[in-house]
Fold these 2 entries.
Entry 1:
Amino acid sequence: MANGSSSEAFVEFERVQKSYDGEKLVVKDLNLSLPKGEFLTMLGPSGSGKTTCLMMLAGFETATHGEIRLDGKSINNIPPHKRGIGMVFQNYALFPHMTVGENLSFPLEVRKLGKSEREKKIARALDMVQMGEFKNRRPTQLSGGQQQRIALARALVFEPELVLMDEPLGALDKQLRETLQFEITELAHRLGITVVYVTHDQTEALTMSDRVAVFDDGRIQQLAPPDELYEKPQNSFVAQFIGENNTLDGVVEEIGPNSCLVRLDDGELIDALPVNVTDVGQRTRVSIRPERVESNIERLHPDAHTLPAVVQEFIYMGDTFRTRLKVAGHDDFVMKTRNAPDQPRLKPGQEIRIGWLPEDCRALDP
Amino acid sequence: MTDSATTPPRQPMAALPGGEVTEGGPMLAADGRPLKHSLNRALRREKLRAFLLVSPLLIFILVAFVAPIADMLFRSVENQIVSETLPRTVLALREDENLPEAAPGEPVYEALYTDLFIAAEYKTHTRLGSRLNYESTGLSSLFRGTGRDVGRFDTDIYTDQFIEAEPALEDPVAWSNWMADDDIRAALPQTADVWDAWVKLTVEANEDDPLEEDVEDFVYAALYRDLASGAAPAGFPDVDVSGFETVSIKALFEESDEDWVDPEVWQVIETYSPAYTDGYFLNSVDMMNGPDGGAEWRPEDEQIYLKLFWRTMWMSLAITVSCIVLGYPIAYLLSTLPLRSANVLMILVLLPFWTSLLVRTSAWKVLLQQQGVINDTLVWIGLVSDTNRLTLINNATGTMIAMTHILLPFMILPLYSVMKTIPPSYMRAAKSMGANDWTAFWRVFFPLSIPGIGAGSILAFILSIGYYITPEIVGGTSGVFISNRIAYHISSSLNWGLAAALGSILLALVLTLYWLYDRIVGIDNVKLGG
């Protein structure tokens, strides 16, 4: 589960709970701490509590229980405007009755900065997002991507140490999203700011973050760097939520420290890495990434267990082949292979055998 | 981070659509015709369909709304009643040179005699009297009285003398033959004109056959005037009128009512003899046409309309402002509440809409009167002494309170619908940037809600400026609006011309304000919903 607090923590959630109606907890026992300068993404399906956490951090929602600390000080009773946290919203939230310059000037004016200093900071913030010449435009005259850059500049112009982003790229098209993903991470690292970023797009989470917190059902299911999250999911929710995934159900037959044998429901035996299983006879759900499935079983260890499979469909995708197989009674088992010269192009109906390295097949909770 | 990485490659955010370039001349469609033409043709069917769909309503509005309004507006300048009822008199007045110092000469009275005789038969003289009474009191009874007398004027001496001189002149059939002769008609112009009028009168008003009736005295009087001026047409009996006994018609009128020789009375008739008049409009702004023909102020004690217009304006403004003050917080609350509770509250706001206006206004009467609920409560609490109860009704205060209550929904609804479109994230963004609640409201929420204030204000102000029922019931004398005066002239004094002029001014005022508003705030900024 979530890692404990450290003395270096900049933002800290401790045993935080949140309920809106007094009957159901939206956030259940949240513990999270992140050091200064980290880019942390809260990822999860809608209703998983990730936005609520962000809003509690920003001060727009109050925690029902627990403590939220910023730079060592509890901020539970500090109103949002005194927290000094920058925020970027999904719908940009640029004030339509002000020009871009006036929008950026707003946080500086409420901080009672002098005019010349304001001008300097606005110019710097606009240059930072390459929108220098748009100072006198109205937000409605800008495209979605331009608006979000302005919103970003506005959240950064008063130099907050912590910036919260609530699905800031959700309303943009794919290409623009990718450009901005790069720009935002680059900017965050260059300025050394701490970012808490909320999204339901797993690609966005994987490409941008230092660490990702996967939310489901009001809890953090796994908090880990992107590669670990993808390759070593801690439970079946994370395994299924992040990337594409094949699952097979069975019972643990033999267990060792680094490998175990699982008997699938149709009687076949497979190798797996025990993650959430401890005892023989436990039910488990094993998870294998499509690209880790090997159809050329000569490449595997001679003792490796293999499974019979029937090709259902073969899709040519350019750089990869995507093969849908019928394995152990399931006909939605996917195998992804690189388009290499030695890679056979399978035909529907063809019978093959598949296998994998034990560490690529993770035996998780059922 | 390396230097090169700190400046990521610039990428245009969105490609601007390139301008359409045409090489002079209009765009052509595929068939070589101008594109505009083809487009119009393609859209014609659509347009026709749209027109047919709206046409029932359009016709209804034209017939039931636009036409009556146009007719009413026309009445504010229309004044044909004088020239239609007294056509000969109006013509004779133009020739007369005695006015304005003295009463006009005999020919005017001769013409008036004929006109009034005919008008009395048609009974239109009383209407004319009422109309001229608006301009000068007393004219109504003058016309009514003389209308009764004019049939008994002693002009029969001409009749008797003519019949004595030539018995054939008594025969209406002979008359009708003579009057069919163009030469005779040309020689006896007044007689011919009066004869035609008599024939028309006999047929239309009395439904008799002129060939069997006695010819009226005024025809002989006209014949005398024609013959006395030297006419001697061939084919007409040659009567020597030089020895005839005469009678002064002016004296007869003076005998009936001496006001007839008052130059001021004639001044009024002459002033209002043209077919169109600015009199109603001058009256609407407390002015009138003076004796010298120019506009002048009415006497101080007759001035009322400017005061009423001014009162209508400032009270409507005050009502609008109090609607904003009371409605804004409610609309704000409604827009921030969850939908379910907002809907319940909205029903409370709309409840007055579903109650009869009269019931609501009467309820205010019960609440506000001196022995009413509010005064009783204040006396009971001890805030007001029993001998010194507040006057809350039958004055401007009463109108303000009741009207504010009635117009409040018209302010709340547009405000609410505009506030509903302001995303809560704006306020959150402002707060996250360090603005406290008030600054966030004042700098962000309030400016964005101004279109709602504008729409609500226009609605409340325009409705209130023309409101009638409520001021009538709770306004007393010091709380009535110009519309109450208009209603009075429509239904009680029947001075429709003045009512129309007052209405036109009110309409112009509203349109001017609307135009000013458009110039200052911009009508595009007004949102009634969405």
Entry 2:
Amino acid sequence: MRKDIMTANRAVAEAVKLAKPQVVPVYPITPQTTISEYLAQFVADGDLDAEYIRVESEHSAMSATLGASQAGVRAFTATSSQGLLYMHEVVYAAAGMRAPIVMADANRAISSPLNIWNDQQDSIVERDAGWIQIYVESAQEAFDSIIMGYKIAENENVLLPLMVCLDGFILTHTVEPVEIPEESEVDEFLPPYAPDHAFLDPATPMSLGTLADPAYYTEARFDMNKALMDSASVIEEVGAEFGEKFGRKYGLIETYKCEDADIILVAMGSLCGTLRAMVDQFRENGDKVGMLRVRSYRPFPYEEINEVIGDAKLAVLDKNVLFGIGGSLYADIKAKCDTNEIYSFVLGLGGRDITPEYIEEVLEITKNPQDKEVYWIGLKGDA
Amino acid sequence: MIFYVETKTLYILEFIMIIHDRMEEMSMIEIRFHGRGGQGAVTAAEILAKAAFKDGKYSQAFPSFGVERRGAPVAAFTRIDEEPINVRYQIYNPDYVVVLDDGLLNVVDVFSGIKEKSEVIINTTGEIEGATHTVYDIDATGIALENLGVNIVNTIILGYFAKKTGAVSIESILEVIKETFPGRLGEKNVIAAQKAYDMA
Amino acid sequence: MVSIGCVIKDPGSTRNNKTGSWRTFKPILDKDKCVDCDNCILFCPEGCVDKEHDIDYDYCKGCGICKVECPVKAIEMIRE
């Protein structure tokens, strides 16, 4: 094990190197670009024995990744924002063809207006594709989630692609300490990919990406739904095994001081670090506040959330917006959980820095709400 | 009786935790770098974070995310702490401000949000007028031109920073400079940074 | 309930579907008139005409394209 200081993009690339995919088709886009650069360097230097395909677009990146996965090898790609939207069609195909791809998405806002900064709208767009979506809080978790990602996705009860969502710039361009385990340790944890549901071999021919007429299509979608729901327990098992081996345990959600909380702040990704610090500050001022981080957005852990929230008021902070609805995490919790009082806060869009003052405003509104559930935080002028 | 002891223990534990939390807050150091695109403000923030990490501390460094172009004003941030760092927002109330180019004083409010005890390090040959805070001026450009032949001052000002603030060891700063710029370039930067350290 | 990813591990199963049952008109080739131009082979959408210009009636759907494309009118469509 070595401990170093690096960006989350570097951590992702280091994790990919240890996960040993054989095919890596990546198209660069801010703020994911350095992932593609590091991986190209690893391949050029012989540190990663993979085919690095210089594709001409993200649609091709995901197509090549899917093709490789269907051929029976481990494959990796990474993208962001417009790139993810451009590969949209094949993102769905990858899930339907049950290809256990792992992809990193450097979360970034969507055009128009053009914006290269962080929010989570891009991956929220893909939430119904049938992919597992993991939102990470730190560079270390980005690293760990890539390694765990393959083990989860390739599990025979899952066989679905997995997206590791890391906040653009806030994680991708911030250097911080990361522990990198030994190659042998990762090899023990993550054996080579050996599929039997789909692979290409002239000796055992099979048809992939087939047509399913009305007699079969519903069942295919039902099976995907089941696999995604079943992946919840696999995420927990793999997270526990990872904890035993590497000392960092992961689950579907993470809680901080929720046990006696009157108000729970709910969010995804890097924002939760700030929220953790704010919870401490609020508690010093006598407000019983807790924090619930949704790590696995798909599968959506509504049972686990239900166990935590009790009668607490929920303030759900979303870096995305479902127009006319509120934030997507808010909408899902409202739909699937036994909530008492719940408020949606849309904030941090297009890289607007989420300061302690914003979180104080969120708490204030949750304590003394107006006659509505959805609030936009930090709006300027008369908006 | 048992109940009493347990409760008391809990109180003491809680008290220790509160003191601990306070100390944690106290111990975090926040540094804001101001520079122009191409002057190495982002690299300076990263070198400082790496050096603090080498000193056995936790650290975090990030740029003022944006479309960085040569010459345009940029900011970069470093946090250093004895404990893991959770917060993820930009630095609005820095303990230290480092200005790589005094020309920025007319363009950017480098003193924005600084606290009573904050200290400011400015690369300049002139006098800083009307400063209400502790301001250190260093002719980093002079050292850079003399030792490196180009006006890139980030490593030099870090040497000066190490001495003036004691927030990071000069040994770690020099080690990270060597790692960041391998070969002859690194050696020259080490000499320049050491010179600034000795001058401070 | 279906195979994972709808993968078909027994490829070529399309052959199980004998489309010849769809036919209402059957092409009959008069090999004496045939000039070996191979148009019928090239144009048959089901690939039912082999190199000897024998028609596979298990799969011929009776679309009649071969009759239209035959330059010497050697193919006649006969009601089943």
